[in-house]
Amino acid sequence: MTAVDPETRIPDPIDVDAAEEARLRAAAGLGPPAPVPGSEYAGFELIGVPDRPPQTEREREMYTLEEGEMLLNMGPQHPSTHGVMRLVVKLRGEVVTDLDPVLGYLHRGIEKLCENATYTTVLTYVDPMDYLASMHNEHAPAIAFEKLFGIQAPPRAEYIRALVVELNRVFSHGLMIGFLALDMGGLTPILYSFINRDDVVELLASISGQRMLFNFFRVGGVNWDVNDEFLSRLGTWHGTVLKSIGDNEKLITENEIFKGRTQGMGILSADQAISYGVTGPNLRASGVPFDVRKAHPYSIYDELEFDVVIQERGDVYARYLQRIAEIKQSLHLIDQIMDKMPHGPVQAQVPGIIRPKPGRAYGAVESPRGLYSVYAISDGGPTPYRFRMRDPSFISLQVMPLLMPGHLIADTMAIMASLDPVMGGVDK
Amino acid sequence: MRLIVERFPETARDLWTDEDTVEVQIARGSVVETLRTLRDDSQFGFFMLADAAAVDYGVGNQFEVVYHLYSDKHPAWLRVRVPVERANPRTPSVTGLWTGAMFHEREMYDMMGIVFEGNRDLRRIYMSPDYRSFPQRKDFLLPDDAADSSAAGVNPLERPETWDLTTFSRELTSSAATYPPLDTQVDVPAEAYPHGQESADKSRPA
Fold this sequence. Notes:
The structure holds 2 protein chains of 2 kinds.
Chain A: H1 18-27, H2 57-63, E1 69-74, E2 86-92, E3 95-102, H3 110-115, H4 119-125, H5 134-149, H6 155-183, H7 188-208, E4 217-218, E5 221-222, H8 228-252, H9 256-262, H10 270-275, H11 281-285, H12 292-295, H13 316-340, E6 359-367, E7 370-378, E8 386-390, H14 392-396, H15 400-403, H16 409-419, H17 423-427
Antiparallel strand pairs in A: 1-2, 2-3, 4-5, 6-7, 7-8
Chain B: H1 2-7, E1 13-17, E2 21-25, H2 31-40, E3 48-56, E4 63-70, E5 77-84, E6 90-92, H3 101-112, E7 115-117, H4 165-174
Parallel strand pairs in B: 2-5, 6-7
Antiparallel strand pairs in B: 1-2, 3-4, 4-5
C-alpha cells in the first residue's frame, strides 16, 4: 500500500456534511447544488417495501402492485434462505408473480480485506466465503498466486489438493440433498446428510486441524502431508460412504411425494442457463457439459479419468440427480488419486514475504457450486493490488426471478434449494 | 490469438498471453460489438461470460472493466480489458449479450461506482441503497486504517504521516477543506446520490 496523498485523495462523500458543503460552495461562489437525481419520484406513491422511491426501471416494475397483488418479505432470516438473505416476493394469491433478491446482509468486504493482506494471509481470508467449500475457496487463489510467482506446487501436493477438494465436494453435494428435502418438509434426509458430512469433516480435520475453515492450502503446496490417522480414517470412510449415501438416496430418489414436487418444476433451459451465467451442477443439469476440470484442467485433473455427467431436463429433480451422480464421480476420482499419489515434498520453496513481479493471473476451479475464479493483479508489492473473486452462487441467484414466477410460494424454496446457494459466498 | 489480431486489427491492442489466458485490450466504444462478435462468430465461440470485474488503477489513472470469456473451441481463457475514464466512469452494459452480467455490473457499480449505460437495474447490491461511497476504490480510506497495520506488510514507522496520530486522524476526518470546489470533482457520478445528502453510514468518526 502506498500512502494516500491528502491533496489528491477524493473525499468520501460522507466526509462532507451538508453545512460544510454549503460553506464551501459559498466560498467558491457557487449556487445551491443541482437537484438530487431521483427527486422526480417525490410524488410517487410508496407501496410496501422499500420505503423510498424506486431507483431503476426494474425496481419500479417490481414494487408497483396491480389489483390483487401483494408483497411478502421472506427473510432476511428465513430458515430456507440458506443464510441471511431477503427475498421480496410479489404474490397473487399463493402464486409468485415476481421476485427480487436483496443481498448484502453478510457482506464483509473480503475482496478489500485481501487487497490489504499479504499473499500468504489471503488464503485464510477466503475460507469463510463459501463455507461449505472452503477447500475450493483456497484452491483458486493458490492457483492464481502460483501463476503470478511462477512457481509450481510439488506433484504430491497437487494430489493431496485434488484429494481434499474432492472430499469437500462429496460432503457439499451430500448436504445439498439434505437441504433440498428439508426445504420441502422432509426432516430425515438432512440427518443422514449431516452424519455423512461429519465423517468427511472429521477426515479433513485430521489432515488440516479444523473442521470447517480448513486453512489447508499454502502458496506453493499444502500445509500438512497426509498422516496415518487420515489414511486409516479414509479407508474406513470409503468402505461405508456408498452405503450411507445410498441410504439417503433410497429415502428420496423414488419417493413419490418428492418426485411430484420436483419433477417439471423450475425448468432452466440450456440457453437460459448460459445467458444467466449459471455454472456447475446446475448448468450440467440443464444439459451443458461444462466442467472447469475438463474445460481448463488445473491441478492434476488432466491425468485422471472421470465423466462430465449431464442431465437433460433441467428441473429441480434433474439438479438433485446431478448431485448424486457427481458424488459418485468424486468417489471414483478419490480412488484414482489414492492409487497414483507419488511420494515427495508437499511444499515448494517459497520466500517468507512474497513480492511477485507486476502481472495478472486468473485461476479458476470447479467448486461444488460451479465456476469459482480469482483474478489477481500484482503491482510488485507484498499485497495483491486487486483481488477479485467470482462466486458461483452469487451469479446463480440471478435465475430465481426467471424460475420462480408461476410457482406456488411453497415451491420457491425447493427451487432455491436446488440451486444450492451459500450466502457466505454470495455476499463475500 | 492470431485470429484476434486478424479480425480486430484496429481495436485490439496490447495482446498478451500467459500459460492459459489470452489478453486483449479494446476501446470502450466498441465493447458491445466486439463481445458480440466474440460470442456469436463461429470461429471464436466465446459463449460464456466467466467473470466481469472492475479494477481501480488509482487516482490520476483509470478504471478498467475486465471480462473473462470461455470458449470450447480455444484452449485458453480470453481476457478482455476495457479502460474506463476515472473522471467519467461510464461504459456500455453487456446485459444485452449475457443476462447474467446484471449482478456483475451491479457489483461493479456498488463497489467502484462505474455506471453501465443500458443496464436497467443498476442499483447497489451489497451496500444499503442510501450508502454514498464506493468502497473498493483505492482512495477509499478504511475507517480503522487497517491498511497501515503491520499485518499488511507495511511498517507504520516508514510512513511519517502516521507518526502523530492526532494530526493524522484530524486530517482524515476534516480534510474536506483542502479539496477543490465540489463542482470540479466530477469523478463520482451524480447517480450515486439519488437520495439526498444524508448519509446512513454512522460508523465513520465524526
